[in-house]
Amino acid sequence: MNNNILLTDLYELTMLQAYSDHRMSATAVFEFFVRKLPPQRNFLVAAGLEQAVDYLEQLCFTPDELEWLARDGHLSRAFIDSLADFRFTGDLDAMPEGTVFFADEPILRVTAPIAEAQLVESRVVNLLHLQTLIASKAARCVLAAPNHLLVDFGMRRAHGAEAAVAAARASYLAGFDGTATVFAGKRYAIPLFGTMAHSFVQAHVSEEAAFHDFAESHPDNVVLLIDTYDTLRGAEKVIPVAHELARRGIQVKAVRLDSGDLADLSEAVRRLFDENGLAHIKIFASGNIDEYRIKALLQRGAPIDGFGIGTHLDVSADAPYLDCVYKLQEYAGQARRKRSTGKSTWPGRKQVFRYSADDGTIQRDELALADRQGDGCPLLKPVMRDGRRLAALPELARIREHAAAELLRLPPAAASLDERYSYPVHIHDALRRLAREVDRRTMD
Q1: Is 90 exceeded by the pLDDT of residue 2?
Q2: Residues near 2 by Cβ (< 8 Å), separated by ≥ 6?
Q3: Which CATH entry fits the domain spanning 147-314: 3.30.565.10, 3.20.20.70, 3.40.50.300, 3.30.870.10?
Q4: pTM to 2 decimals?
């Protein structure tokens, strides 16, 4: 990920100069949360914390960046010179990645001198928003296709290289089995999947020749794309090729369908293979797949063993953004609260307490002040103190296990793709009282 400090909005820097000019340097508390869930979402999955921590730890201005800011002319030279030693020295508390959360619940809290806490706003929101968005979409695909192979195919339609790699990480975190994006495999040790494109078949004199050449080059990963011309004819051509390869010790693992009526075609292909002694060949489907299409296909009984999910995942097509914000909740020891119509916030440092049934299913959450001694499970955990992480963050495999456990704990209605469900998040009375006190103070 790109950790350049200039990945920010100009107003962060103009505010910093004003803070500096007027000697405002007290501690501020900002929280990142989602105001309301999109209509297509009953829950969200927290993701992107690792990248946010990396960014905060590396935060600094280089001499070249300071010189460019001076030439740009928006800031005073004296202020720019003061940024030479700028670092993040604050604290960070956050929900572990993979945690399920709901509207109004902070998943990250920054406590630092106001200049530090303010400057990081734009990039922290940018990092958390993208991965949370994609992880939440991917989790729905996982719920729609239990025990099926799921692969991220979306790099070419992602909004840039960083987004493609982040989507691969977020989808794997949420339960996908791997990605086609090679750099994500290198960067995050995510399993890689991929075989051939239609162009490979077209470049050969026949489909059979393409199948043979690929199998000979990749005998341990023979997955054949059969819909370049005619899907059923392609499947028929696989039969003699598969038997001939088997005599040479090479097994066709699967075929891929990328177009057409996937339910009808998968049924016909399965029947062909089963009747010809090829029951071991699996069927993998791709092409405009999302959780809704997966659910419809599996409800019809389509004999599809796995799915490649691209565009609809990597841009979260049905809910392409979250109404997420990073808001000041306390400054100089006093709780603060935004009261704008439709955008009001709950003031003060907060904690989310979660309550579960005896079987582990989550029942309700409570949004309360951070110092409340609740009997629920507190979700925000200490991550950084004085600008340094307290411990190594969990490896991606462990985060993935946590996310899987979180999805199992969802109430059935929350896990539904079709039913609109509002998970109960109770606002603690002390938090409501504080909001009224802040309102009285700021209206005077």
Answers
A1: no
A2: 162
A3: 3.20.20.70
A4: 0.96
259 burial level (CB within 10 Å; 0-12, 13-18, 19+): middle
Cα–Cα distance measured from residue 104 to residue 180, given in angstroms and rounded to the nearest whole number: 35
Q: Which residues pair with 256 in a beta bridge?
A: 225, 284
Q: Could you state, in order of their start, the residue ranges of all structural domains in the chain?
A: 10-134+319-443, 147-314
The answer to whether residues 403 and 173 touch, using CB atoms and an 8 Å cutoff, is: yes
pLDDT in tens, 206-239: 999 999 999 999 999 999 999 999 999 999 999 9
CB–CB of 352/427 below 8 Å? no
Going by the DSSP 8-state scheme, the letter that residue 147 receives in this structure is T
Residue 51, CA distances (Å) to 57, 102, 382, 384 in order: 10, 21, 16, 13
CA-based nearest residue to 132, from 290, 320, 318: 320
Binning pLDDT at 50, 70 and 90, where does residue 364 land?
very high
Instruction: Using the Cα atoms of residue 376, residue 174, residue 108 and residue 130 in order, give the sign of their dihedral.
Output: negative
Distance CA 89, CA 78 (A): 22
CB neighbour list of residue 87: distance below 8 Å, 6 or more residues apart? 59, 60, 116, 387
Q: Which amino acid is at 218?
A: H
* Residue position matching structure tokens 């440092």: 349
Q: Which CATH code is given to the segment(s) 10-134+319-443? A: 3.20.140.10
